[in-house]
Each structure stands twice: as structure tokens, then as C-alpha cells.
Hints:
GO terms for molecular function: G protein-coupled receptor activity; olfactory receptor activity. Keywords: Cell membrane, G-protein coupled receptor, Membrane, Olfaction, Receptor, Sensory transduction, Transducer, Transmembrane, Transmembrane helix. Residues 40-289 form the G-protein coupled receptors family 1 profile domain. Belongs to the G-protein coupled receptor 1 family. This protein is an all-alpha fold. 35% of the residues are buried. The chain starts with 10 loop residues before the first strand and ends with a helix. The chain is globular and about 65 Å long. It is built from ten helices and three strands.
Amino acid sequence: xxxxxxxxxxxxxxxxxxxxxxxxxxxxxxxxxxxxxxxxxxxxxxxxxxxxxxxxxxxxxxxxxxxxxxxxxxxxxxxxxxxxxxxxxxxxxxxxxxxxxxxxxxxxxxxxxxxxxxxxxxxxxxxxxxxxxxxxxxxxxxxxxxxxxxxxxxxxxxxxxxxxxxxxxxxxxxxxxxxxxxxxxxxxxxxxxxxxxxxxxxxxxxxxxxxxxxxxxxxxxxxxxxxxxxxxxxxxxxxxxxxxxxxxxxxxxxxxxxxxxxxxxxxxxxxxxxxxxxxxxxxxxxxxxxxxxxxxxxxxxxxxxxxxxxxx
Length: 312
């Protein structure tokens, strides 16, 4: 029997990996995905910083997305891997609150940043002559700063709640990180008001932005269809399809998880869906944006050539 060394205020994260060979295989797979996400997002940030051709609003926002994804996956995976290796699944109450705060903050910031990126593409394709005015450096900084402020305020509200609810004797969280809805199931009080708050937050910060993104891309696709240049249409379709792929991977499992009432939720299903937006998306984003983007691949070639020319 596992010894969790649990104190009166510790929680137990039941985790994602079963104690079997399948669990070991999943652990190795997740660690490899984590390393790919780490290398991919760091490379994207450095590439955008080093290559002047990528010093545009779109790539500035993309570098911020990579920074968020880097923090996102680092908030979840190292603790999960440590628990599996050491067989100690306990996490202190303070540690759980901190993890929950950062996860909630980053989740909202990423959702708002993806919306900003959709707006950027909308302006670039539908109003190209106004692009430099509407997407100036100041506007980009305001978008990013606003996303972080709103995300932090939302996370503070959820964190304050979990700090003050009474928990029952069982402290086993059936998840691989301190997800607030999973923690709420351990409460010794009626939480219907808070569940309504979660529904409201999900609607405001996920559903509304997704509707906004869908509407903006509807306008973009219409504008692209009317383009006379075949090359311009191809480039615009490629950019839009790349962003829509990222948006779908992120929003779909998130919305499906958090908009369902507790009676329809399954811990196993929640954990599987959480893998998409906490682990797979941070790994896939840099791959999708680099492999399907000629400008990024061109910048990578130029940076590599510069490095080799300096060495020679």
C-alpha cells in the first residue's frame, strides 16, 4: 500500500498514470511531450526575438503564446512526473492553491490571446491599409497586458473561494493537478452557487471569445474568397487554417469539460480531456505554427546560417 505521508492539510492527487506497465509507458510519453513542448516553445521565442523579419504584431503575439504554453505545461507536468517517480502523490494545501491559481490564470490568458491573434488576422486581411494603425506596438502591449490582468483577477476570485470552503475528511482529488471543479467535489457544503460562477466564467472567457473568433474568421474567409491573387488566397487560407487548428484543439475540450453540470461529468473523461489543453496543445502549437508557416521556416534557416557563419 502506498504511503502518501499526508498531513491534515494535504491533498492527494490520484494522477493520470495507473500503477502498471501502461502507466510507465504513459509516463515516458508525457515526459517526451513535455520536452518537445519545452524545446519547441523556447525555440519559437528565441527565433522571433533573433530574426528581424518576424518583428511584426502577429509574431509578437505568437511569442507570447509560446511563453504562456511554456508556463502552462510547466505548471502541470513536473509535479505529475515527480509524483509518479517518487510514489508520493500528496500536495500541500498551499501548493495546491498556487498550482490552481497559475493554471486558471494561464488558461484565461491563452484564451484571450488567441482572440487577439484572430483579431490581428482579421485586420490584416480585411483592412490591410489600417493594419499598422490598428495593430500598433502599443495596441499589442495593451492586448497582452489586459489579458494577463483579466486572467489574474479571474484566478484570484476562484482561488479565494477554494481557500474558504470547508473540505470533508477525504482529500483525494481525482485528477492529475489541482483543478478547481475537482477540488469542489470534496467540499462539505453546497457549491451550486460556485458551480454557477464556473459556468459564467467559462461562458465569458471561453465561449464568447470562441464566438468572436468564429465570426472574425467568417469575415476573413469571405474576404479571402474575393481576392484576385491566387497566391494571396493560398497564404491567407494557410494562416487562417493554422490558427483555427490551434483554437479548436484548445477551446473544444475546455468548453466541453467546464460547461457540463457535475452530474454529467466523469473524472476519467475529465482527465483525458484535460490532457488536450494542458499537455498536447502546448506541444502542438509551435509545431503547427512552424511547419505550416514559410516565414517561420525561412527565419529558422536564416538563424541557422548566421550561427554557422559566425562559427566559421
